[in-house]
Amino acid sequence: MLKAFLFDMDGVLYDSMRGHVQAWHDTLAAEGIVVPPAELYLYEGRTGHSTINLLFNRTFGRNATPEEVERIYLHKAQRFNELESPESKPMPGAWEVLQQVKQAGLQRIIVTGSGQQSLFEKLDKHFPAMFDRDKMVTAYDVKHGKPNPEPYLKGLQKGGLQPDEAIVVENAPLGVEAARAAGVFTVAVNTGPLADDILWNAGANFVYPSMQALADDFDAVIAASI
C-alpha cells in the first residue's frame, strides 16, 4: 500500500539548480578548475566534499585538503546566496503535486543534500502545512551523498516505511540512482538541461518534463506504482 512521497528539493520543489550550477562554476573557475556548466548538473546530489575531490583529482591529480574543501564550499555557498538573492522560487507545479499527495492522505518527506539552517522555515513559507520537521533528511543526517542509497533509506526510516510503500520524486541522475538503489519507485522530473535518456538510464520509472506535467498525470503515477 502506498503511504508516502519522498521529495528531493533543488530542481524539484525549488527552481534553484541554475543558481547552484553557476555558483559552482564561478567558484571552481577561481580555483583554476574549468568545468562546463552542463556537466555540473550530472554531479547534483553529491556531497560538496565529493564534488570538489572529484574535480581536484581530474585537474590536479590529488584530493583537496580539508582546508581547501572548507574554503571552496564556503565560497560556493556565498556565491549562491548572491545569485539567488533574495531567494529561490518554488518550482511551477510543485504546489499542485503536494496538494494531491496531501489529499490522498500520504506522507510528505524531504530528502535533500542541503544543509542550510533555514530549510524548514523556507519550506513552511512556500509550502505551508506540507512538511514536518521530523520528516526531513538533510546533509546533517547522512554520511554518504547520492548516488549512495543512504539518504533515501533514511527517509524511509523516518516515515516508518518499506521501499514498496513510497514514491520518490527526483530531478538528478544521481538522485534517481540513489532512490532506485533503495528499492523505491522513482519519478524523474527533467527540470534541467540534461537529456531524458540520462534519467531513464539512471533507472527512473517515469520521466516528466516538469512538476506541472507530473501533477497533470498524478493518478497514472499512483496506479503504476501500486
Walk me through this protein's architecture:
- By secondary structure, the chain is an alpha/beta fold.
- The chain folds into 2 domains: 4-15 and 88-225, HAD superfamily/HAD-like (Rossmann fold, 3-Layer(aba) Sandwich), CATH 3.40.50; 17-83, Putative phosphatase, domain 2 (DNA polymerase, domain 1, Orthogonal Bundle).
- It has 11 helices and 6 strands.
- It has helices at 17-30, 37-40, 48-60, 66-83, 94-103, 119-126, 150-159, 173-181, 196-202, 211-216, 218-225, and strands spanning 4-7, 107-111, 136-137, 166-170, 185-189, 206-208.
- The longest helix has 18 residues, at 66-83.
- The protein is globular.
SSE succession: EHHHHHEHEHEHEHEHH
Q: Given this structure, which CATH class of the largest domain is correct?
A: Alpha Beta
Largest sheet: 6 strands, parallel
Radius of gyration, rounded? 17 Å
Helix content: 40-55%
Instruction: State the end-to-end CA separation.
Output: 7 Å
Low-pLDDT segments: none
Total number of beta strands = 6
The helix tally amounts to 11
Q: What's the short story on this structure?
A:
The protein has about 230 residues and is an alpha/beta fold. It has helices at about 15-30, 35-40, 50-60, 65-85, 95-105, 120-125, 150-160, 175-180, 195-200, 210-215, 220-225; strands at about 5, 105-110, 135, 165-170, 185-190, 205-210. The longest helix is centred in the first third of the chain and has 18 residues, at about 65-85.
